[in-house]
Write a structure and sequence with these properties.
The chain is built from 6 helices and 10 strands, in the order βββαββββαααβαβαβ. With 210 residues, it is of the alpha/beta class. The chain has a domain of 64 residues. The strands form 2 sheets. A 5-stranded antiparallel sheet has the order 2-1-4-5-6, covered by helices on one side. Strands 7-8-9-3-10 form a 5-stranded parallel sheet, with helices on both faces.
């Protein structure tokens, strides 16, 4: 398996949020993590990408140990992309510059090629010079996803990606996102409380707090 989590546990102060959680995820698949508010969905993403440290358990990604009892790989070394619920775009940067920020060290020409390809993929080529304040919620979501993909992550994590969208736009973005990810061969984990998100997008569904 491409990603393996074994007996993962985490607690904040005296509250245990995740207990002995295990899963296995195939490369290029889309996995939805379902759960109610407070079930530990967002915490699970933070553990996977290295923003939090587990108290027990292990994780391997692409046959490399990210953490176990003797080892912990820092977040910036994991090559994992995380798109936050509020998208976390830089308000002073244009759409193009926000996406360009995600590109790893590269030549100017190569960087432009990557950004141009992603702008086209997310249908924002004509909006490249706009600022986030000039973009709709759906456009901001696409910028955030493109910025995460610009780093060519081994794994992409999405935290409630449709929570800020109206129903019509949500339906369209589900279709587009599944198409993008499958075309790019990206391995994706999406956390959501919406069963329809999971049904329309995911190859497998994991339920937290069940």
């Amino acid at each position: 398996m491409y990603l393996k989590l074994n007996d993962l546990s985490f607690q904040y102060d005296d509250q245990q949020l995740i207990h002995s959680f295990s899963c296995a995820i195939e490369k290029g698949s889309i996995t939805a993590v379902l759960g109610s508010s407070g079930s530990g969905k967002s915490t699970l993403l933070r553990l996977i990408c290295g923003l939090e440290k587990p108290i027990e358990g292990s994780m391997t990604l692409d046959q490399k140990v990210m953490f176990d009892n003797a080892h912990f790989t820092e977040a910036h070394c994991r090559q994992i992309g995380l798109v936050f619920q509020d998208y976390a775009l830089f308000p002073h940067l244009t759409v193009r510059k926000n996406i360009e920020y995600g590109v790893r060290k590269s030549s100017v020409l190569r960087k432009k090629e990557i950004v141009d390809r992603l702008l086209k993929m997310v249908e924002l080529t004509q909006d490249a010079d706009k600022y986030p304040s000039q973009c709709s919620g759906g456009m901001q979501q696409r910028v955030a996803i493109a910025r995460a993909l610009a780093n060519e992550p081994k794994l992409l994590l999405l935290d409630e990606p449709f929570s800020n969208l109206d129903q019509q736009l949500k339906d369209r973005m589900r279709i587009l996102m599944k198409q993008w990810f499958k075309e790019q061969g990206v391995t994706v984990i999406i956390v959501t409380h919406d069963q329809q998100d999971a049904a329309m997008l995911a190859d497998q569904i994991i339920v937290l707090g069940a």
